[in-house]
Amino acid sequence: MIDWGGVLCAVRCDDETGAAFVIAVHSFALGPAAGGTRAMEYPSLDAAVLDATRLAEAMSLKLAVAGLPLGGGKSVIALPVPRARLDPARWRRILEIHAENVAAFGGNYVTGPDVGTTAADMDVVHECGAYATGRTPATGGSGSSAPATARGVHIAVKRAAAEAGFDELDGLTVLIQGLGAVGAEVARRVAADGARLIVADIDERAVTAAVRLGATAVPVEDVLQVESDLFVPCAIGGIIDADVAGTIRTKAIAGAANNVLTGGAAAEVLQGRGIVLAPDFIANVGGAVDLAGREFLGWGDVEVEQKLAEIGDTLDRVFADAATEHISTDEAARCLARRRLEALRTSR
Ligand code: NAI
Ligand code: PHE
């Protein structure tokens, strides 16, 4: 059984395309549920369901902490082969089926891009009758959420560094895992701050681009053994369990990857070792702020940047609460999310 606490999880398996579709809604408490569409291979349907439910919960926490009037949801499309090996017609059909599933929620779940999907994919989903945020500007969408996410992660990296006792990033060794849409932009920003970059990605082209920025590349399988001042995970979740937390050689962790910890035990081990953790659902809220702010709340650049700046204050609050209450920063952030959710719910 999954220990989850969410509202519902819908699953559809399609023989024609070989894909399995999961939509998890964690909460409707603050409004329609929102969360992106992740398309990738999974070892089993159970693994896809588990990922969707945990990611939907992370969206609830993220949106509540930021005070955005939306619940948490997530879509997972478990692909039969890697996305790059799907022919365009089969991918199009997968998106059509996904749109049908999202539309069945009647506007109570809105999707958007996530790992394995793009703004152009969201155009297709929208065109097929389901509301999708993060479409291309040509179709009236607000485009990729990655730049805003990266700006927010950059703020979080600097705050986590400060909490770990570093006044600035200049001269620090920053290890970045994943140089995709978010990680590459974070790399550019921390390199501009004077940090020494160590990077890893399964995509050689992404690594080559970072090496041109002056980064040192390490093999992907070595990342969790490499020593750094700051570790910035921007690839996949579930990489830090209690064992890794006990051995990782860094002073602070702040990144974009959703659900970077496998659970609360890992957070406690990090806390016990004095490693600062900026909870991911606070650090990576920039994309949600950009999409939800612009598309649902009518925000422009000024409001989006103001909200991103709050990431630093929220982290300071969480670091202080964790110290006062002798709990991990992950637990302190979850408590803050629950309090803000309750306050927003009662004020509605
Ligand atoms: P992306 O798909 O553009 O980039 C992910 C990168 O990680 C790719 O370059 C990929 O090759 C690399 N990668 C995959 N497995 C790896 C491994 N084992 N080791 C090293 N590199 C690996 O995704 P994006 O948009 O940059 O997102 C990165 C993370 O941030 C994801 O976990 C996503 O859920 C999260 N996130 C993204 C947001 C956004 O607005 N794009 C918002 C909030 C969270
Ligand atoms: N997938 C991104 C995230 O995890 C951006 C996103 C936010 C997409 C909200 C849809 C809705 O935050």
Outline the secondary-structure elements:
Elements (H helix, E strand, L loop, with lengths): L7 E6 L6 E6 L7 E2 L2 E4 L4 H21 L5 E8 L9 H16 L5 E2 L8 H9 L18 H18 L9 E5 L3 H12 L3 E5 L3 H9 L3 E2 L12 E4 L8 H6 L4 E2 L10 H9 L3 E2 L2 H4 L2 H11 L4 H25 L3 H19 L1
Parallel strand pairs: 3-5, 3-6, 4-5, 7-8, 7-10, 8-9, 10-11, 11-12
Antiparallel strand pairs: 1-2, 2-5
Helix pairs in contact: 1-12, 2-3, 4-5, 4-10, 4-11, 10-11, 11-12
The protein binds 1,4-dihydronicotinamide adenine dinucleotide (NAI) and phenylalanine.
The site of 1,4-dihydronicotinamide adenine dinucleotide (NAI) has 27 residues, from α4 and α5.
Give your account of this protein's structure:
With 348 residues, the protein is of the alpha/beta class. The chain is built from twelve helices and twelve strands. The protein has helices spanning 45-65, 88-103, 119-127, 146-163, 181-192, 204-212, 242-247, 264-272, 280-283, 286-296, 301-325, 329-347, and strands at residues 8-13, 20-25, 33-34, 37-40, 71-78, 109-110, 173-177, 196-200, 216-217, 230-233, 252-253, 276-277. The strands form two sheets. Strands 1, 2, 3, 4, 5 and 6 form a six-stranded mixed sheet that branches. Strands 9-8-7-10-11-12 form a six-stranded parallel sheet, sandwiched between helices. Helix 1 crosses helix 12. 1,4-dihydronicotinamide adenine dinucleotide binds at residues 114-115, 145-146, 149, 177-183, 200-203, 206, 220, 234-237, 256-258, 284, 287.
